[in-house]
Amino acid sequence: MPSEEVDVVVIGMGPGGEYVAAQCATAGLRTVGVESRLVGGECPYFGCVPSKMIIRAANALGEAGRVGELAGTATTTPDFGPVAKRIRDEATDDWDDKVAVDRFTATGGTFVRGRAKITGPHTVAVDGREFVATKAIVINTGTDPAVPPIDGLKDTPYWTNRDILKADRLPASLAVLGGGAIGLELAQAYARFGVQVTVVEVADRLLALEEPESSELITKVLSNEGLTVHTGVKVSRVSYHNGFTLDLGGEHVTAEKLLVAAGRRTALKELGVAALGIDDSARFLDTDGNMRVVDGLYAVGDITGKGAFTHMSMYQAAIAVRAILGQDGPPAEYHSVPRVTFTDPEIGAVGMTEQQARDAGRTVRVGLSQLPSSARGWIHKAGNDGLIKLIESDGVLVGATAAGPSGGEVLSALAVAVHARVPVDRLIHMPYAYPTFHRAIEDALGKLA
């Protein structure tokens, strides 16, 4: 096929890829952006944005339910219709990415719809066209929902996060396979709209990658809200006949719909990275501090394995752009990656967990404070579940958790402390506004032991 010479080819136009492509094109580089699905990626259409719309609405229902403890009585009638409409409006007329495509092409870039495959050094094939990228190929293909190899599952009409966020009506009951952030956020939200929800997790606790205290907290909250939680169980079979049945090895869970939220997967083989001598059976691409995989190839976002978060993709994208344009700047650092599970309470965390720090051979001190015993927690009363947990090593915080109302916002102070390696002695000897949720950080600092 005839070759078209360009400067940069971006494979995958998620948030990070779109940013790289737009910045390169704006800088005057001949840039081609390739996307087989939707420009903008998972986040605006099936991830962060629409899921948080559901959560925002569900949290309003949850907060209304607390009026009885604080200010009299309130009656609500859940209606999913406005939420479904808002998601469709945000996703631009039923998941159309024309606005995003036009936004990119307005920078001077060329957009190609299709599946890209690397065929050799600097060379990318897309549906009968071949591009030679003289400066860089950038991969930002993200991840797809992982479907566990459970007997019978693949032959059923299960939902992934993409399907559930397209739903325009609520089922009577929902089983959620997976106790991570995505599964728990949607499980709680759907339950607050009146859906009977059961969560099934193979690990021995929910949010297994976070602190045990966070797992205990969210399990208690969800159980108190009427959700059924199964942990440490294996699903041996899934069947479907006008509804789903999950066989837990003697016990059965039935539900009208099944959400599979059991992690994400990459697909290096489909990208053709083997043509560059890269192991295409690996799960992620290893990069240097400038997001370079090998000469002429960069990667940003989920496919680097540094956190499946939009903010990490954007962080890495800015670094890749500087490298491609020959600009100076600090290399990527991953000691302070922030993450938030947007349940109610929110569970924010940054850096290492206590176990990760100990496994790394660090000598640690741990400080733990409970939000309900703080002044703001006592004032807040209803819905004041939460905690602050600090992990200190060598005089600085290496990890922290902020769970509670606005836990993700409280996390910001801790993320700065971990990222900048602020000495704990400086954190102890500073004022904390009273009465705030973040003042519980001061209490946790005083309990480091």
What does this structure look like?
The chain is α/β, with parallel strands linked by helices. The protein contains 16 helices and 22 strands. The protein folds into 3 domains: 145 residues, FAD/NAD(P)-binding domain, CATH 3.50.50; 110 residues, 3-Layer(bba) Sandwich (FAD/NAD(P)-binding domain), CATH 3.50.50; 109 residues, 2-Layer Sandwich (Enolase-like, domain 1), CATH 3.30.390. 32% of the residues lie in helices and 25% in strands. Strands 1, 2, 3, 4, 5, 6, 16 and 17 form an 8-stranded mixed beta sheet that branches. Helix 1 packs parallel to helix 11, helix 3 runs antiparallel to helix 5 and helix 3 crosses helix 8. The chain starts with a strand and ends with a helix. The model has no long low-confidence stretch (mean pLDDT 96).
Mean pLDDT: 96
Low-pLDDT ranges: none
Spatial separation of the terminal alpha carbons = 67 Å
Give the CATH superfamily of the largest domain: FAD/NAD(P)-binding domain
* Cα gyration radius (Å): 23 Å
Strand content: 15-25%
CATH architecture call of the largest domain: 3-Layer(bba) Sandwich
Give the tally of β-strands: 22
> Helix tally?
16
CATH topology of the largest domain: FAD/NAD(P)-binding domain
Overall geometric form: globular
Identify the CATH class of the largest domain. Answer: Alpha Beta
Q: What would you call the structural class?
A: alpha/beta
Helix content: 25-40%
Q: What's the main sheet like?
A: 8 strands, mixed
